[in-house]
């Protein structure tokens, strides 16, 4: 359905998975569909019902509303984990643990942790036109210094 496809979607690290703005819902999208049909002067008898709109959203599009729940390794997600990949993953976390312990014991070592917090769309607009536009996203990088 063209209306559902008109909403800009954020790419995900999951194959073929996209996310719509967390300020949307299927109900809100359906209301916007009704408004658009009214503007286009589509006769009411040609409008699809909300249940059909939801069915198409759920079964024809690989969309979710909101943000991906967590960042995961695309190699592990694809099921292509090799022994070498698992070894590198384990070695990386062991090195991280060693560095953190060194920072606790030695005065001349600093351990820095960085994390990208949840992204948020800016400005936070709830007008219908905003849902069809690509919004700017706010990224907040958190830093923690352990010494």
Question: What does this molecule look like?
Answer:
This protein is an alpha+beta fold. It is 41% helix and 18% strand. The strands form three sheets. The protein has a three-stranded mixed sheet, with no helix packed on it. A hairpin with a 6-residue loop joins strand 1 and strand 2. The protein starts with a helix and ends with a strand.
Compute the CA-based radius of gyration: 22 Å
Strand composition percent: 15-25%
> How far apart are the termini?
55 Å
Total tally of structural domains: 1
Low-pLDDT stretches are none
Helix content: 40-55%
Shape: elongated
Number of E-state strands? 7
Spatial strand sequence of the major β-sheet: 1-2-3
If you average the pLDDT, what whole number results?
81
Structural class: alpha+beta
The biggest sheet, with number of strands, parallel, antiparallel or mixed sense and barrel status, is: 3 strands, mixed
